[in-house]
Automatic annotation (TrEMBL), chains A, B, C, D:
Source species of the chain: Balaenoptera physalus
Domain 3-hydroxyisobutyrate dehydrogenase-like NAD-binding: 102-228
InterPro entries found in the cross-reference section: 6-PGluconate_DH-like_C_sf, 6PGD_dom2, 6PGDH_NADP-bd, HIBADH, HIBADH-like_NADP-bd, NAD(P)-bd_dom_sf
The name this protein goes by in its record: 3-hydroxyisobutyrate dehydrogenase, mitochondrial
Enzyme Commission numbers on file: 1.1.1.31
Pathway participation: Amino-acid degradation; L-valine degradation
Length: 229, 229, 229, 229
């Protein structure tokens, strides 16, 4: 589970890389969040060596990792999925096959794109409501039983004092860092550019998290966008 | 329940307006979605006549209205809320007091701001995923058990073929029109400008719905942003 | 030349307002930047008193005011324009009639909308170029002989060290404050909402200047967006 | 002068590529607009063969190419610049050295980023002004003597009827196609992501041109954004 596409390429194709020594029939599972194009490239190289490659990025964060409740989004051939599932099931309670190699990454990227957008949206709506004189707890309660409801509003609310046990209750420490979100949005941007998909709010979300990194929020949880606004 | 702030002002303050003839002690409830500043102004005028004004915008759409399951977000003095609740309970299953006059509007505006943002976000994420080769039903299923989950993805998915009984399953007919969403986002924009609240994604969502209105989507449901992208 | 629409309304329609005492035949010229709808309203009231109202917002800043080189954008009836021109010519080297009442404001708003967008664009392009290893002076020089050229790049460059005698050469002091730009963009936003004109970049520029005001840039020149980025 | 980074890589490194047969001491000049990182990679490979590589993207369009008045933005070692200048001077009236390999691309990308932003800004401001009742010719005239002035407003105005001899006077035929602008903004986006530079308006401009390509504007001049709005 390496941080960037470049690290993954090096680990596989570098001078002492995995591709140099991998045994026939091995199952190689990469759980980093990287460019799906790179996953596909690596899978081809691995196949040449007679082994099998799968991408299986995770979601759930540190908490879910500790309790073995991660979600794995797996891309790879169907025949080998049972084997992967057995291994990954030790760490995760959800192991979902998304399709062929690269689709695990694609699902992860789409999820985090939507997550970033709805988190910023939640921060904007809560902030506007507070400035209009609303009580934040009451506002969150009504949003959560209405059409504005989303994971960022009902499970991970970014406004201090609204929920317990979330980063906003702990000065935005822990959780999923702003830098990591900016990185994932960079991958979404790259995928959108290469597939010519318009992501109007997504590219704005990307830029907002980039700015936050430059303004001292890089190590805070990504819900600190409420504080930034 | 009139469409704009101007209509409401005329109904109350116009030549043959309500303010000319209202009896002392009357309870006046306005369920249109209008500028909260206007609600406050009207409440002051009504108070001068010895009557009581409340704002009580609704959510839920045509379906909920038919079945008496609307949500009413009520702004007004606490002492009169029980009376309002009795009346509104005939049409709605949720009648929530949000605070003093204007707060019903404020909550409605914040909800629809977040709704518009998460709907466009859902459309962008689903569209990107499809172009990356994912099956839309599978993608929606995984998003809905992950942190990208929102009402627009799990209850009102904008991609044809993913869900039944929603406007996207019926060529985006019925539902909540793009023009109405553009109008509500105009109110959010005005409130944000007057309270100096930054709404980076919200103002972009506003502009996107404005453009859609000009491009032939005005009568379609607001989830048609998927088709537009 | 009052700062907001509300101030202008009070100066005219307030308890001791101009409308109470204005003599027939007077020529009233308002040089504040306000909502063109308000200018039109005031003109109607003034006309009822037998006087004439014109809107004549200025551009050029403190320097041009000192040297009598302001530009006045005038909206008002053609017959009275010569009289206005004579007066305004004492302070301005350009006195342009833009059409009937309100058009002076409309031109001012459109100019500042485009100005804000091209200033932020210049800041983004210069910043990106510098991070790509370009010399800022050389980059500015080439932009200014190419299709990226604009007033913000060739006359008021936001990058310290590129030009002399501009706010960026003086720690962004003096010039046209970020708060004032945010205010003018608020007027542009209101005009765009009421005429249903899409301003995708304009509304984003508005939000960026709003954020800057909240982040300690309110008193700096609006070219400090380079520093903010 | 090939359309994409991938084409350039193939022309140099492909099975029958230039790198296979290039003679020592050759001067290789690439005038396509591609990723500056790719230019640098190619330069390294070329150097290994004992030859010299320069990037020299152009601006000016078909008209300037015909009349030999192109602008060349050159990146490459200083010692060889005189030789390049002699060749490129046959086609261009401006041949500017921007620094080492890759800087020609960097300048081109920054220019087109700013160009796209100011073109969309001009379209938004002109459109808003027209809807506010202004005469487009008069509005353009005043903008062009004010701080909103830019190449898109004074040399290439996007509103039909304002200027002669530009694409907007000819149903947006000829000129610089929307697809090409979307491509260059994709390069700007990639450069911004890899250097972690925030480009808030730039990424929005990118998405707008992407949407235009999907909506039937791909072959029209990029000033057709006025028509799109």
């Amino acid at each position: 589970m390496l941080p960037t596409s470049i690290n993954a390429i090096e680990a596989y194709s570098g001078a002492n890389g995995i591709l140099k020594k991998v045994k026939k029939g091995s199952l190689l599972i990469d759980s980093g969040t990287i460019d799906p194009m790179v996953s596909k490239e690596l899978a081809k190289e691995v196949e040449k060596m007679g082994a099998v490659f799968m991408d299986a990025p995770v979601s759930g964060g540190v908490g879910a990792a500790r309790s073995g409740n991660l979600t794995f989004m797996v891309g790879g051939v169907e025949e080998e999925f049972a084997a992967a599932q057995e291994l990954l099931g030790c760490m995760g309670s959800n192991v979902v096959r998304c399709g062929d190699v690269g689709t695990g990454q694609a699902v992860k990227i789409c999820n985090n794109l939507l997550l970033a957008i709805s988190m910023i949206g939640t921060a904007e709506a809560m902030n506007l409501g507070i400035r209009l004189g609303l009580d934040p707890k009451l506002l969150a309660k009504i949003l959560n039983m209405s059409s504005g409801r989303c994971w960022s509003s009902d499970t991970y609310n970014p406004v201090p004092g609204v929920m317990d046990g979330v980063p906003s209750a702990n000065n935005y420490q822990g959780g999923f860092g702003t830098t990591l979100m900016a990185k994932d949005l960079g991958l979404a941007q790259d995928s959108a550019t290469s597939t010519k998909s318009p992501i109007l709010l997504g590219s704005q979300a990307h830029q907002i998290y980039r700015m936050m990194c430059a303004k001292g929020y890089s190590k805070k949880d990504f819900s600190s966008v409420f504080q930034f606004l």
